Amino acid sequence: MNIFLDSISSPSSSDDDELVMHTLLSTAHDIVRQRGEFSNVEKKRRKSINQDREAANELLVHDYFNLDSLYDLSKFEDHFRISRNLFLRIARDLENNYEFFQLKWDARGKRGFTTFQKCTAALRQLAYDIAVNASDEYLKMSARTGREYTYLFCEYTIELYGDIYLRNPTKNDVEQLYVAHQAKHGFPGMLGSIDCIHWVWGNCPNAWRGQFTRGDHGVPTVILEAVVSQDLWFWHAFFGMAGSNNDLNVLGASPLFNNILQGKAPNMSYIINGREYNHGYYLADGIYPEYATFVKSYTYPANEKRKLFKLAQESARKDVE
């Protein structure tokens, strides 16, 4: 599946980087779990081809990474489906932490692939779901090598960033969220805002278009359920439901409340109107169920007090929108 899809909304570049990182890590987990499917395939001796890897790297750098590169930042993001800053950050961290992503020469003195080539091969496969040998002509990389780089790219990015981007909030995090949301929005006990975003799936197979298309969007989409705090940090991201579903269907399949149900969620009490509560809540729109963990606006506020609450709730929910 194409993981870097076009959002119907238009988040800022930095916010989009955080979202892409969440999505990348989620998909990387799936790729790593699938690894081994080819381990039992009989390996055949291949004819050695003298590919000019150095020239391929020079072309890649000329096209995307020089100060006066052929393609500007906008084109880079179009082609790689992530920003150049995020690409460089991932490439730098992989090179600094893993020998496999460093440039090497073999025993014959033959130059290997650069970090840029390895990361480009992996990201192109993840972004466009292309065949593993599609990088051969541009990057001079065989299918087997490209597959190996993709697996290791997924495995290592999870090791590097999983504890940051895929972790659940700790007790200290929850306490800070309470303080920050009360200071900014006036909502004590607020963990964040929840909403679903539809991402256009441009390459959706024709046979699946009906399953992934909803009437109000008119095009195939994949749904992301997200919980975002006041600083635009993603504390929860559940991606992959077909676009024909609504927010309730997504919530039913989501692992959002797993920690609470399993007794693993941190207990952090707060007080509203003299009453103590042990678990925080999320601001949500009207489609969400009447759970204590969802605070929704009034559809038809009957008095000034409810009108004021409606304005405050809808204003605070803009964090996730």
UniProtKB/TrEMBL annotation:
InterPro entries: Harbinger_derived_prot. It comes from the Eukaryota. It holds the Pfam family Plant_tran. This is DDE Tnp4 domain-containing protein. The lineage of its organism: Eukaryota, Viridiplantae, Streptophyta, Embryophyta, Tracheophyta.
